Amino acid sequence: MTSYRSFRELMAQGELVRVAGAHDALGATLAQQAGFQAVWASSFEVSASRCLPDASILTMTEYLSAAANMQKAIGIPVVADVDTGYGNNLNVAHMVHEYEAAGITAVCIEDKLFPKVNSFAATSHDLLPLPDFTAKLRTAKSAQQGDDFYVIARTEALINGLGVDEALERCSAYADAGADAVLVHSKKKDEREVVEFLDGWDGRRPVVIVPTTYPQWSAAEATKHGVSVVIYANQGLRATVQALRDTFRTIYDDGTSLGVESGIAPVSDVFALQRLDDWLALEA
Ligand code: SPV
Ligand code: MG
């Protein structure tokens, strides 16, 4: 599948954009089939799919390969989680060249120091000084070749415990530096600090949220407070882990797969996801 709208076109529609996290083409396809408008090529998921921590261990090439494989399979845009941009300004420029050339229409760069660790890990989450991150954003925006490429600037100020004022100051500077949208991440169990951010935000760029730790805050509620994009970053991965664990355990314990057959997708379902008939038609 090659024709897909860019993320910018999707955003121009002015409706809430719901995004599901994935790490491969299969997950991305299932997200599209469920109705999501875009797919988040999650650094956490891509790392987990290799049983490695989300700690700047995999290389840009590996993340790009995963994102590109997703984009090739689906007709909705991939939003690539590109962590810190994989290094300094030079790395950011290279990243934009490579992602854009691969047909990715949106990336999300975060303001943590490289190497970064996943936001939920119990470790330090130091931020790049504000001027250094705005320089990264300006680098990214001037590196893009086409007008369509979309850069989301993500602040980890709340993750770092720096408070809403710091998050607002940073996102405002990120908008000035040319970011197309801002992502404010939080690891609180409720949405209060995100709401406080939204109440203080001047609205000149769309706001993206990732409500992993505050799942009780619905997309409908978030929209009322001015959120434009909601990312369900890792629920697919977590569902997969639990489903595989339960299925393998049952088969092993029972000594037969009979007990799981009614609860797993038939082979014909997998054939459909592989578009097997389309491929076999090429033989005709
Ligand atoms: C990811 O999915 O890789 C993210 C979101 O960056 S989080 O894991 O919540 O930091
Ligand atoms: Mg990530």
Explain what you see:
The chain has helices spanning 7-12, 25-34, 43-48, 60-73, 89-101, 130-143, 164-176, 192-200, 219-224, 235-254, 258-261, 267-273, 276-281, and strands at residues 17-22, 38-41, 78-81, 106-110, 150-155, 181-184, 207-209, 227-232. By secondary structure, the protein is of the alpha/beta class. Strands 1-2-3-4-5-6-7-8 form an eight-stranded parallel barrel, surrounded by seven helices. Helix 2 packs across helix 4. It is globular. The structure holds sulfopyruvate and magnesium ion (MG). Sulfopyruvate is lined by residues 21, 42-44, 54, 81, 118-119, 210, 212, 233-234.
Chain-wise SSE layout:
Elements: H1 7-12, E1 17-22, H2 25-34, E2 38-41, H3 43-48, H4 60-73, E3 78-81, H5 89-101, E4 106-110, H6 130-143, E5 150-155, H7 164-176, E6 181-184, H8 192-200, E7 207-209, H9 219-224, E8 227-232, H10 235-254, H11 258-261, H12 267-273, H13 276-281
Parallel strand pairs: 1-2, 1-8, 2-3, 3-4, 4-5, 5-6, 6-7, 7-8
Helix pairs in contact: 2-4, 5-6, 6-7, 7-8
The chain binds sulfopyruvate and magnesium ion.
Residues 42-44, 54, 81 line the site of magnesium ion.
